Every structure is written in structure tokens, then in C-alpha cells.
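Example for tutorial group B:
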């Protein structure tokens, strides 16, 4: 199978070429889908650092898929004419991939929301501990402490 850059220079002229192009595109899609499913499983299990560790690999797989998809788009008329069944199967496979990607984005958004909630809760706890504990009205420092200004010292006496 030719790399996408070489295949882009040659128009699809036979059924074998069309099927080979769609097979390469489907393989790239399957590799990317496997990477997304692994990331989804790790992040869903709370192992965010592990899930994001394969970001470079996922980026490479995504680039390979997009390059092959561009070649297919350039040859869509020939693909539909020469390999209609293979094109239909690829489109079904692509719909399945979109569901996997949607699930991945949902898991990432959930992890982000949980993380933000934890950080916000931690920040509020730290701020609560930093406030002075006083008697009297609930959690109100004395009036002098509220309106106090910083001390300034002069070097001349």
C-alpha cells in the first residue's frame, strides 16, 4: 500500500486501486479508533495522566487518517463508481467511529468538570482556613480589622 502522499498523485483508475485506498483508509480509522477507546477507558477510570500520555501517537494516527481521507475525497467519484460496496462499508465504519469519538469527548468533558469541581472545592477550603475565626456575628472580623490599612514606616525620625 502506498503512503497517502504518493497515492494522492495517482488518480484511482481501477477497482483494485479503489479498494486498496478504502482499505488503507479503514485501517487508519481503526487504528485511531483503538487509540481513542484506550484513552476513553483510562480517563473514565480516573487515570487521566495515563490517558493523555499517548497524545503524540493519537495525533500521528489522526494526521494519517486525515491525509488518507483527503485522498479519498479527491477520488470520491471514482470510488463510488469502481468500489461502491467498499465505500458503503467505509461509511458505516465511519459512523461507528463518530460514536466512539462522541463517547470520548463526553468522558473528557466529564473528567474536566470533575477536576474543576475538585480544584474549586480545594480553593474554597483553603480560603475558609485563611479567614480569621472570631466571636460575635458569624465569621465577621472586628470592624478595626476590616478597615485597617497597611503600616508605613519612615526612615527619618
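The residue assignment follows.
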Amino acid at each position: 500500500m502506498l503512503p497517502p502522499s504518493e497515492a494522492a498523485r495517482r488518480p484511482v483508475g481501477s477497482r483494485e486501486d479503489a479498494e486498496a485506498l478504502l482499505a488503507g483508509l479503514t485501517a487508519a480509522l481503526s487504528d485511531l479508533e483503538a487509540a481513542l477507546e484506550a484513552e476513553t477507558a483510562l480517563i473514565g477510570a480516573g487515570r487521566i495522566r495515563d490517558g493523555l500520555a499517548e497524545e503524540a501517537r493519537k495525533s500521528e494516527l489522526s494526521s494519517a487518517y486525515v491525509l488518507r481521507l483527503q485522498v479519498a475525497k479527491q477520488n470520491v467519484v471514482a470510488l463510488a463508481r469502481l468500489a461502491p460496496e467498499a465505500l458503503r462499508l467505509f461509511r458505516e465504519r465511519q459512523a461507528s467511529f463518530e460514536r466512539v469519538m462522541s463517547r470520548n469527548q463526553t468522558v473528557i468533558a466529564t473528567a474536566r468538570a470533575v477536576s474543576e469541581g475538585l480544584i474549586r472545592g480545594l480553593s474554597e477550603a483553603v480560603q475558609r482556613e485563611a479567614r480569621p475565626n472570631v466571636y460575635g456575628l458569624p465569621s465577621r472580623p472586628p470592624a478595626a480589622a476590616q478597615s485597617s490599612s497597611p503600616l508605613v514606616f519612615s526612615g527619618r525620625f
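The chain has one domain: 4-131. Compare this with the pattern of hydrophobic and polar residues in the output above.
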